[in-house]
Amino acid sequence: MRTNEEMIAAVVRKEETTWINPWLLPFATTSATCELVVSDEMIADAERRLDRFAPFIRKCWPETEQTNGLIESPLTPIPKAQKKLEEQYDVSIPGRLFLKMDSHLAIAGSVKARGGIYEVLKHAEDLALEGGKLVETDSYEVFAGEEMQKYLHQYTVQVGSTGNLGLSIGIMSAALGFKVIVHMSADAKQWKKDLLRSKGVQVVEYADDYSKAVAEGRKNSDADPMSYFVDDEKSVNLFLGYAVAAKRLQKQLTEQGITVDAEHPLLVYIPAGVGGAPGGVAYGLKRIFKDNVHCFFCEPVLCPSVLLGIATQKFEKCNVHDYGISGVTHADGLACASPSGFVTRIMTNLLSGEFTVTDAKLYDYLRLLYQAEDIQIEPSSCAAFAGPVGLLHYADSAEYCAAHGLDAAKLANAVQISWATGGRLVPEENRVEYLNTHL
Ligand SMILES: *Cc1c(COP(=O)(O)O)cnc(C)c1O
């Protein structure tokens, strides 16, 4: 196995590679410390809050009728894409490959419909309870009513975003009656800004990157006592909203007759931007499946900020610019030059490793998935395929498998999940453009 320093050097050279986390510990060793920071009870509380809001969500978004007002996505086997990936990249992808389709989540069309929406709902509930406008046993359909909307309209919600977080926060805040200001970094796609403005959201644009949009948004919000800032770089509430995904996934696995245990390992690959979404999801999964789940993040070679934050143990002080990496990538949802300090710390002993991916490959994976399975997701999402393709291809990740008892027999029983994090709201003209992009 290469040393941590050798792996970091390859990342700094912007090579497609894997990084295996030297600080990963057996779950039992680290569980108690983690529990002090984010407990199972906190995740269960978040789950109950989303259940309370389900009647409101169902009423406002009939698309959630099927899931009874829960914002949840299908877990889909993608055997044709699995075979195509094996052929195209001359690799072996053992076990069964699934797509977790958060790309198709209701309301926001991305994984941000978990954390982003959860945090806004929690804030609305806090205000309504404080203001005596609600008791917990009320039907939360009251949030669709005029009186509550008028009450919440006194308040402002603000957020800094590369696009998708702004979409989820903007859409939900506006639906609850809040005033909303979304501070968008230069990476944000025009259609995302247009969509938000059409919902009455104020969009402020910056010529700078994501960290700048967050800093300005935070400053603007702190100056207004009626304003609340959703802080992607620090928020525990966002994290909890994402973590709820784990229990829901467990239920889907059970429904599909899939066992996860020492003989049937689960490998999960999630694209990372600032780290909140993949961190929350992976954290939730580790609490349930412990050492039987192996969580890997995937990042663009042009913006591997979470990888470097953990690998160097510099956490939020790490910035890809300090390593001569631009942070500018076609994966707009992953273009965060500095990672979350909270997530890089809490995942230090839980994350198995990372895979990096070039921008060109993102479009190749996008086309491959579309051709094989007739599913289209956005470029950022496609980073999730660097995992299954890389696992046995790189010597270090293959060695990780050997060191963790993932021999050929166990891998043959494995379920591998590429977590598709966004795509449903991409307009038709952009879809066509993506399919035709060759870098
Ligand atoms: C935001 C986002 C991610 C990563 O989430 P972070 O919380 O920023 O790590 C991944 N994929 C897509 C499409 C996203 O929008």
Structure characteristics:
19 helices; alpha/beta; 439 residues; 46% helix; single chain; four-stranded parallel sheet; binds pyridoxal-5'-phosphate; seven-stranded mixed sheet
Plain-language structure description:
The protein has helices spanning about 5-10, 25-35, 40-60, 80-90, 110-130, 145-150, 165-175, 190-200, 210-220, 235-245, 245-255, 275-290, 305-310, 340-345, 360-375, 385-390, 395-405, 410, 430-435, and strands spanning about 20, 75, 95-100, 155-160, 180-185, 200-205, 225-230, 265-270, 295-300, 355, 415-420. By secondary structure, it is α/β, with parallel strands linked by helices. The longest helix is centred in the N-terminal third of the chain and has 21 residues, at about 40-60.
